[in-house]
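Example record

One chain of 148 residues, shown exactly as stored in the release files.
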Amino acid sequence: GSYINAMLGTSIPLVYFGTAAILLFMTVNILGIKNSVKTLTGLVIFNVIVLFVFVISGLTMFNPSNFAIFLPNGTSGLIAGASIIFFAFTGFSRITTIGDEVKNPEKTIPMAIVISIIISTLLYFLIAYTAIGLVPYAKMADSTAPLS
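Predicted structure tokens for this chain:
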């Protein structure tokens, strides 16, 4: 909700966004697993496209001087960021839960885990690098929607 409000210049209460999301996903869930898979696949593809568009367009307005000061407030921010990234990468282990439903799981599951880690690492790095190159850290730290 914070990102939508920031992009549209509105101040709609966040509870409305949460309620809409719950109702949307509840409806998709009620409609069955095939619709859930299609919806989630579409959302993931949309998210990845949006993030790559952000990176590509952001690199055209990149300001290298934003990298001049590294760790201006000590290592506490780096440690906090590392903990977020740790939890972001824990999702790859869910791949193993579908082993019974995958053809040739001995080969495809390890490959899926490696590919998901590589894509996640690349995407997180590119987004962080681009965001820091676009917005000075002090301005980003004060925002509720730093990438908007």
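Notes: The longest helix spans residues 105-134.
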